[in-house]
Design brief:
The structure is a single chain. By secondary structure, this protein is α/β, with parallel strands linked by helices. It has helices at about 20-30, 50-60, 60-70, 90-100, 130-145, 170-190, and strands at about 5-10, 35-40, 75-80, 115-125, 150-155. The protein has a 5-stranded parallel sheet with strand order 2-1-3-4-5, sandwiched between helices. Helix 3 crosses helix 4 (about 90-100). The longest helix has 21 residues, at about 170-190. It is globular, with a radius of gyration of 16 Å. The chain binds flavin mononucleotide. Flavin mononucleotide (FMN) binds near residues 18, 82, 84, 85 and 124.
Length: about 190
């Protein structure tokens, strides 16, 4: 059976980011359950704030096209989403907006989002673990972009104390839920390959 290709994206580029850590852990766990994993950083895809006149005047930025093609080269996507003001980070929303606008010849609308499986998780120093960012992100991906997002999701509270020195999740129950979410991502991705 061919290995599912999963793209792992943190919604933060901050030095010491909890969600970069969570994304790295996801990549490690996904590799252990026989996925072919690529982990990227939005730092490698700098984009202007989406603005329709800019889009019309300048055309699609090369980085938006590259990001879209990177997503389309994978069967599944895992996003680690920080929470800003009870929602997703502007960095993540802006990237999604650009990718949703990029069209290549013959593309259906939202080509990067349809036909592949998404899984989302969050980490925050707050007590809700970024859960509200996951609610917003699910809405953006499913209702906004037509993506299939698996129902399993994990929000990691008190993220500044949630990881050990190996960057594994300390709480056993949460770690098991996270592994189960990733397993479901791989299982659902295989079904859609
Ligand atoms: C503008 C801003 C708004 C924030 N709003 C929230 C929030 O609503 N809920 C929350 O749990 N944390 C909030 N935080 C704290 C972030 O969760 C925290 O900075 C976290 O470390 C960001 O994720 P990262 O570590 O992956 O960069 C906010 C931080 C910033 C800078």
């Amino acid at each position: 059976m061919p290995m599912p290709k999963i793209l792992v994206i943190p919604g933060s580029t901050r030095t010491g980011s909890h969600n970069v850590k969570l994304a790295a852990l996801a990549a490690k766990e996904l590799t252990l359950i026989d996925a072919e994993v690529t982990r990227i950083s939005f730092a490698d895809y700098p984009l202007p704030i989406y603005e329709a006149d800019l889009d019309a005047r300048m055309g699609q930025p090369a980085n938006a096209l590259a990001l879209k093609q990177m997503i389309m080269a994978h069967h599944g996507v895992f996003i680690a989403s920080p929470e800003y003001s009870a929602s997703v980070t502007p960095l993540l929303k802006n990237a999604i907006d650009w990718v949703s606008r990029v069209r290549e010849r013959g593309d259906p609308t939202y080509a990067a989002f349809k036909g592949r499986v998404f899984a989302i998780a969050s980490a925050s120093p707050g007590r809700a673990g970024g859960l509200r960012s996951l609610m917003a992100l699910r809405q953006i991906l499913e209702l906004g972009c037509g993506a299939f997002v698996i129902p399993e999701q994990v929000a990691i509270p008190n993220a500044d104390q949630a990881f050990d020195e190996m960057d594994d999740i300390i709480d056993t129950g949460t770690a098991n839920l996270f592994r189960a979410e990733l397993q479901r991502l791989v299982d659902m991705t295989r079904l859609m390959m």
